[in-house]
């Protein structure tokens, strides 16, 4: 599993996956070569510039160099002996027709222009040669081979429009040269036209495949970023819904206390009674605003079915806390996951509501990740409390050998997002990571006090503001991990 995939799944290794070395995970040389062949090079890059190995990046130069070294002397000898061309002209044409192939690795279009001019000049000169009769013309066999090599470089680099233009120019030039054709010669214009078209079509298709794969990879990257962002916003909306239940309880208590104060404290002066009445009115108004916000966050198109976390039954159900961890662990054990719970006495009573709810949700998400990514792994859950903070620790070992791991897919790997958001809500810290034995560790520190009295409130306000842009998002209970 790659580092990126390991991060998406919370750093876990799927059960039953044997330990693999880096060499075992690398694709074979043939696969790498095929990938490099399909990868289009930028305008300023040589062919195979993005290949992973040095020998693969040097391969185009080696191949073209072999053709140049082979074709250069062959061209000079054939033009001199078979066609009867002057030795000086033979040498000049041999250099002009073969050496520009080296430029085709980085600049195939200029190389094609140079070779086309050299081949045309050679065809004109050969039309007047003494021994041209009975030999291929206007393109010699060496010129045909070099031209096809050039077409391969063009097809892997240039656009379809340029390739079509090159192909048509090749055919048009061959048709024009037919007017100079000497007698009793084998015309190769049609042959080169057909062969160059085939090479251009093949290499152009490879380039098109590479372009398509590149666009798909870019689109997948964008989709993954959008999916992560949407999951984050959904988790914030879900936290805001749960936070409403906590805050609404306290606001209801304030309203009741302010309304009942004149009856519980007889003889209260009139100004004090009016002040309590104003407090109760403000509290009721705040409750009304929160209910309107909750109506948007729990809209039918953004909630699950009735009975789900976002449904009507879930809205009326009390929010869980540390006191219900024992029930959560027992449910997990009945599902076949060995879990041990160590719960400090008085932890549920010591934690404020936001911390109490966050601690439960963190343990719930951590156990869900264990079930998905390390089924059968022995797991320890520990919740301790001191004067300043609640420490939530979930540690699991490696998965059982015969366990079946849930495959990765879209919407998975986001469990840590919800944990981080909940910890940030309370002003705490989260530490997660894989263990040397193949297990995983989740440690959350949730402060019992807000320091200067504003930290938790500031985070809560931030969460409520974040939900203003996510009114139409679905509940993320099924996508958090």
Automatic annotation (TrEMBL):
The keyword Glycoprotein does not apply. Keywords: ATP-binding, Kinase, Membrane, Nucleotide-binding, Phosphoprotein, Transferase, Transmembrane, Transmembrane helix, Two-component regulatory system. Residues 235-301 form the Signal transduction histidine kinase subgroup 3 dimerisation and phosphoacceptor domain. SUPFAM superfamilies: ATPase domain of HSP90 chaperone/DNA topoisomerase II/histidine kinase. Pfam families: HATPase_c, HisKA_3. It comes from the Bacteria. GO terms for molecular function: kinase activity. Its EC number is 2.7.13.3. CDD domains: HATPase_UhpB-NarQ-NarX-like. The chain crosses the membrane at residues 58-81, 139-156, 163-180, 186-206. Residues 464-481 have a biased composition (Low complexity). Residues 1-24, 454-481 are annotated as: Disordered. It catalyses: ATP + protein L-histidine = ADP + protein N-phospho-L-histidine. Residues 358-449 form the Histidine kinase/HSP90-like ATPase domain. Residues 1-10 have a biased composition (Basic and acidic residues). This is histidine kinase.
